[in-house]
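ARCHIVE ENTRY
Sequence with per-residue C-alpha cells
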Amino acid sequence: MITIHLKYEIDPDRIEDFEEYGRRWVALVNRFGGTHHGYFLPSEGDSDIAYALFSFPGFAQYERYRADSATDPECQAAFELARRTGCIRRYERRFLRPLDQEGNSSSGGSARS
C-alpha cells in the first residue's frame, strides 16, 4: 500500500472554495479505487495550511489513477475550480508506506532512523 500525504498552502479567504475542492476529490479518489482518509483544515494555529491523505493498494494503481484523472471530466472540473478561485497557493506531495502488524516496513526496505 502507498499513502499520499498532501500539504496545501491555501488562501484563508477562499476556504469555502477549498472545502468544495476537497469534497470533490474525496469522491473522485474513492471512485478511482483509492481510499481517501480526508482533508484536514486549519483550526488553531496556521490559517493557511491544510492536509489530505489518501491511499492506493500500490504505486502502480496510484500511477493509473494519475493517468486516468488527467482526462476525466470531473477531475478536470475540480482542477479548474482550484485554478479559477486561487484557493490553493501551492502544495507538496509525499509518498508514505505503512508499517505492517509485526513492525516491519511493508516494502521490505532496510531499517533507518
